Fold:
Amino acid sequence: EVHLVESGGGLVQPGGSLRLSCAVSGFTFTTYYMSWVRQAPGKGLEWVASISQDGSDKYYLDSVKGRFFVSRDNAEDSLFLRMNSLRAGDTAVYYCARHFCGGDCSVFNFFDLWGRGTLVTVSS
Amino acid sequence: DIVMTQSPESLAVSLGERATISCKSSQSIFYMSNSKNYLAWYQQKPGQPPKVLISWASTRVSGVPDRFTGSGSGTDFTLTITSLQAEDVAVYYCQQYFNSRTSFGQGTKLEIK
Structure:
């Protein structure tokens, strides 16, 4: 069965750092583009970052550019999000999501698989 | 960046009746070379991650009941739920994936009247 399991969330002070992980199982990780999507408490979905299959292409939401860094370890079937200089506005559940791949396995695909998310709270 | 705007923000519909949610993009998300609209619809129930219902504006994902229908092209799209069931109570989001920097609508909360 296919799974995405996020971890690494928690309470961090403003200006602090955190590293989120997403462990993948049940499918060939190297086939897929992957992304992080967040959801602030009681709010809507906001895309954060995407990474290509080999890690060579990365895209970021403007408000996290230069602070957040997406990466992947294909040998370990894992996706990561390094978050620096955290702000209160970064408080959210962070979801790991897989881009659909049906021939064209580009970034231009919807999300067909989601993890259950990990909560990041930025507060003093 | 492409801005997605949904309406209404919330909607109350009686069981068995029709629910209609609109989604507009700030620019066309129709790609002429393959004649596809790069739009998806998601359903999110409380405490759960989103679940994709519709891709390419009108293609129902496997396992999704046929009471869910997506339509529209270019910049204007609609999700229609015919014969509303109690389990359809959720927040619904549209998403454009025409741009490498994807974006979502703000969500529409669907409740039972």
Remarks:
- The radius of gyration of chain A is 14 Å.
- The interface with chain B takes residues 35, 44-47, 50, 59, 61-62, 95, 100, 107-112, 114-117 of chain A (CB under 8 Å).
